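Exercise 7.
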Amino acid sequence: MVSLILPTALSGTTTPDADDYVMTAIFFAFVYGIFLFLLGVLKVGTLLENILSRPALTGFTQGASILIACSQLKNVLGYHSHVPYTVDNLIGALFENIGHIHLWTPLIGIPALVIILVMKKVKKTFPTIILVLIVAILISYLAKIEENISVEIVGKVQKGLPAPHFIEGITDRNLLTRSLGSIVVLTFVGYAESISVAKKFAAEHQYTLLVNQELIALGLCNIISAWFQAYPVAGSLPRTVVNAHTGSKTPLATLMACIIVGIMLQFGTDLIYYTPLCILGAIVMSAALSIIDFSEPIFMWKVGKKADCVSFVLTYIATAFFGPILGVATAGLVSLCQVIYHSGRPDVFELGRLPESTTYKNILRFPKAKLVPGVVVIGVAAPRLSFYNYPWFRNGMEQIENDYTHRNNSRLIEEIPVGTSSPPTSHVTTNMMDDTTTVVQLEEQPIVIPTNPNDRLHTIIIDLAPIEAMDGTCLLYFLELKHSYKQKNVAMLFANVKHNVVRSLKKTGLVTTENERTEVFSSIEDAVHYALGHSLAAPTKTETLDDKFPLLKIFTADYNVDEVNLITF
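Solution. The predicted structure, written as tokens, is:
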């Protein structure tokens, strides 16, 4: 993909017939390598990986596959065209040149393509590509196909390894200024191509992909190779496919490939000379076609994830029909839209108290959850409240507040237990009349806060349990909300607030040191108790033995008796 868009990237700086064309391509490789290296060192690769969704990356990979396959049509069928690398242009060029197709070229290229594809289905590890390449070179050499039937071959390749060479333009600030935008685009396309194909095979072979490490390696490859007159490279989709299908398991395969390429450049350029271009095109096309797989978008559609399916389709169309540059931009845009759509629409709901517990749950999911008269407890399912989701949160709060007057009275809780009295389990009393001793069994008495079903809304409790942080927009909204509630004589309390959120609330003045204990609570239950106007230690009035028999206190002064079952003497 980088090779496909490199001419376009260079066109903004130089022209193919200019003397500095090759030098500029080498300069691109050097700066491009620095950018990739910095992305890896600064851990930006992981951030970009998190931003780009899997459907978007898959769509880019599939679009790139069909684009690469179509780009080889001219080599496999034997015609010449110079059109922008998009599927519609490449297919259009095929129909325009259908009368100029060289007869012998497809007779060699198409059978080779079919053999490679069929053998991949039969046995992937069989070295079909190597055998096809060797046979094709032998036929080309022995039959002199270039001379006899005019089939294009690779031709002369410069012998030997390139010597180190100073990168011209490395000190030219004007060149950097003119080419910076193109190199940035090239960097993101190289990143998308490398990481998308790497993630595909990482998932297929079940190994962990270290994105930043990959970027550092790619960056160093481009930086070092630029000193040996190389142009920008990235993780190649076709080469990766060929590498995987030949049974490669470790980077040792790539090292061996490098050694073999070096040996061929030093001693085997005469063999490379006779390689038919249609065979190379067939190899690249077979690798690209083997990548095409629509199982993921079909699965997403079946499980009802329409947004993911749309993300795949948009990225696929943009890459295939508008080029890899727009494909990368579309992948980033649709991924960002997905993030904003899902995180910008947090679930806002009212909480109710489960029977015989202090747990509060979503009343829509838990029909048995009871509502507290005069109090609305609001929950939100979001790790962060920020500028992009606070409007949705605000609208949800307003809707719940407006629905207060339409509450179902059957769901209102009549009283809230706040604990029990704690007397001894038993108490010994003495009857002074007959000098007998009686053991009186004591019972724990529940302490409850009664509620009034006709109470107006006087308290809003916001459960911030899942909230890790708030930005300034949300804090300003809470300040405005608090002022609005104050005018309505409605209290706003917070429950389950994390330490860093409390700190933010204090800095904005929403919570002060003086009112922290009356506005921020460690649990919803504590906030409800406070809202109903009772402290946890305030028991209700109960009848005791002292109330029934005042003189009994004289005889039981040494005991702590709060309440007993009355015994008739």
